[in-house]
Amino acid sequence: MNERHFVLITGNVCNNHCIFCPNGDDKRDCKLNHETLIRIIDESKSNHDFITLSGGEVTIRDDFLDICQHAHDINYGIIVQTNARKLADPSLCLRLVEQGEKIYHVSFHSHVEAVHDHLTRRSGSLEQVRTAIRNLRNLNQKVITNTVIAKQNYADLKGTVNSIFDMGVTHIQLAAMHPIGNANRNAGEVLPSFSEIYPYVRKAVDLSAQRGGKILLEAFPYCVCQGMYEHVAEPHIPKMNVRNMEQELNGFKKYRLEGKSKMKKCVDCCFNQICEGPWKEYIDFYGEEEFNPITDIESDEVFK
Ligand code: SF4
């Protein structure tokens, strides 16, 4: 947790077209050029130990391997945030591993092909992700998956989590959708309520305990995940700075807090000091009724 993390958004160009992508379609062509990226990586190094290379989809850049090599050369620890479709190519995985170890944050939205491929709007994308995870695991690379919870996948989150563990992944994140960009435009089709998903998230969390894995819940206020408080992701997220295409944000936590909303009733909640609240746009869509202050437990009892 003391390591210093830098997240570099290299562009919005992507080979998926996810229904819930937080980037709007209007910005899909934007990307930083190679020289600018190298300069940013160099300038950021004195204040950071780890760099997350993100997109859009960073692996489809022509200079992806060169960027990774440069980051290794200046002793950055590297995290690649990816939909992993390109990593279905074993020779690319091998070249990446020959450069040095990395951690791969892989999007995996369902173990059911029709569901995953519908959400990514790319036929064959699930099969490619499965192949990529196998490639990376065969090369002893650490893989962490991220599943965005949607109306289409929540009813069998347990099946998805089981399938991910079966591939040798031990660290899973389930994310509450951020309803901006495409997710906002398609909210009626894809955005589930916390009340709808709760029993299914609970089953997935219980399964991960049975299988000895780690599961975190991103962007979940505490009051909508009763009995799973220790799985809320935000206290586990290290301090990080984020550089998008326009500017360096003052910090990922500040960015999150600006996008989220607390309610008047939160003052009565024992988690008020540590809870970030739901995304603002979620309240626009579903209102405040699901969020009720927790008064029967102290937050430090959860995190002792
Ligand atoms: S009532 Fe407010 S502070 Fe408490 S957990 Fe819910 S959103 Fe967070």
Structure overview:
This protein is α/β, with parallel strands linked by helices. The protein has helices spanning 34-45, 64-73, 90-99, 113-120, 125-138, 157-166, 182-185, 187-190, 194-210, 252-259, 280-286, 299-302; strands spanning 5-9, 50-54, 77-82, 102-107, 142-149, 171-176, 214-218, 240-243. Helix 6 links the parallel strand 5 and strand 6 (171-176). The longest helix has 17 residues, at 194-210. The mean pLDDT is 93. Residues 221-223, 262-263, 266, 269, 271-272, 275, 277, 291, 293-294 line the site of iron/sulfur cluster.
Summed up:
The chain has 304 residues and is of the alpha/beta class. It has helices at 34-45, 64-73, 90-99, 113-120, 125-138, 157-166, 182-185, 187-190, 194-210, 252-259, 280-286, 299-302, and strands at 5-9, 50-54, 77-82, 102-107, 142-149, 171-176, 214-218, 240-243. Iron/sulfur cluster is lined by residues 221-223, 262-263, 266, 269, 271-272, 275, 277, 291, 293-294.
